[in-house]
Amino acid sequence: MAQSLTANRLIDGVVLYWRGGDWVETLAEADVFAEPQTADAAFAAAKDFVARNVVVNPYLFEVKDGRPVSEREIIRAAGPSVRQDVGKQADV
Amino acid sequence: MYRYDEFDAAFVRERTEQFRFQVERRLKGELNEDQFKPFRLMNGLYLQLHAYMLRVAVPYGTLSAPQLRMLAHIARKYDKGYGHFTTRQNIQYNWPKLKDVPDILAELATVEMHAIQTSGNCIRNVTSDHFAGAAAEEVEDPRPVAELIRQWSSLHPEFSFLGRKFKIAVTASPHDRTALRYHDAGVEIVQNGDGRIGYRISVGGGMGRTPYLSYVVAEFIEKPDLLAYLEAILRVFNESGRRDNIYKARIKILAHTLGATAMRERIEREFGEIKAAGSLDVPETERARIEAYFAPPAFEDLPDMALPQGGALGDWVTSNTHPHRVRGYRIVTISLKPIGGVPGDISHEQLDGVAELLDDFALDELRASHEQNLVLPHVRIEDLPAIFERLTVLGLATPNAGLITDLICCPGLDYCDLANARSITIAQEISKRFADLARQHDIGDLKIKISGCINACGHHHAGHIGILGVDKKGVEYYQLLLGGSAAEDASIGEILGPGFGEHEIVDAVERVVEAYLTLRQPGERFLATTRRLGLEPFRSAAYEEQRHGAD
What is the DSSP letter of B161? Predict the structure, then answer.
């Protein structure tokens, strides 16, 4: 299954997504890796950002048709489902 | 309430600056995350699903008006305008930035607050009865003892790196409002046959994936010996508790593996050694010094007044006020469970509004309860209408304390990095389903507790009806438990059967409740009916729809 890569920004904890060798703040802009090898390569590259103390806790997660498969990642990408006024959904 | 002395103030100030230094090192790259994590956890800072989360300690749930105003200020300035009262009497913020946390802690220190030991493998914030000092039936105010334990356990050198966290509750009332038997150690203030006051100590309770109720290890510990006895318990835990498996590292596992007899012997042996050394006697003068901070307010000599009746005020008085030990006064519960709302959430305007209420009605303090409500412990009956009016304006007058919509739940998958499923959404749907107040009163005392994962922050094991969120291949499912209790009749709920889908669980809860209404005897509360009949009738009711579907 396709995957995307996420982490949290160290300084403020904001959820980030991997795009083209750097980080963006919305899932809509994130790279989707169809092949495990490209996902693993991105994950390996992300570790450099960990080493440079830019992000923490990077990990890959599954996506299908541009949407995360798990409820957890859907909520992480949008914000709490019980408050539309906070999280990334508040900025849309 | 307790006021910091010079030592306390310096200690918290220094601790804040130490953490500021470590945050600076982390941001400069001098520490990596693995090196920094123990520092942030010992200062209550987690990394959650969306952002950092800061848990602020509210020792034994007691708050003053200036502290409430500071909590409101922090919500406004550093967070997103709200806080969340937890199931352990603390408050947490869901959106702080790491770079701001030292400033937040410095501001908290100005009102004698901090986030020390609200996380990590240490002795956590000591909890107590939210009706302390006001409950008619209590032996004495339990908070001086809780404060003594807080002072002893803060940065205790021997117990700052335990195998796992350690939670202590203190109560002085035969009606337990602290979930005492679900704690690693419980301190029950009791009076013996000679009229002396001392402590009954229990050990080995806990929730999580392996729930246990504690058992009594000492029937009566004399007042000067309390800390020595607790130190003996912690020493046994530290020496013999497992550290090889995080899921088996709590003292409940040690206590129930050793068994009561061996555990008591181990503790007694350590206790004897500590006593012989004489290093932990708490002198009467020190206990008296702490007790003085908790002296009751100057109660007026009021006549016995009838309670307001009828209408919205009457509904609220019936549900949300409770007998007080002094004539002319009531204890008021401020529900943080608006119908369809998020249990425990409170806005900065509401925090400020409650602070103003304390000032305007000369109320010294507020309590946070582990049931995610607030409590005004000493309210004149004559002030009830005006307080109700003010709470109504603040959106804090939901008349449901102790009823089915007064449910507790953890933040669940909406906020928590560990959660498997959402819990707040289920709480909201149950709340809306049972919104009708007459129906709530007909159902009566029924406690629903919801956790979004097996860690059980929503106390699902202790719910009369418990709900546990689980993950099945990325989809949320919910297990239903029945028969739990956190009160003096403590019990662990049993799982009814296979989990329900997100859109099935509230219907299943309603079928269980309807079965209770059909099966109960006159005056029999939900828990008593489940204990009398066993789970089978409720299991049949809960799974009725699936059976019909299969037919």
Answer: S
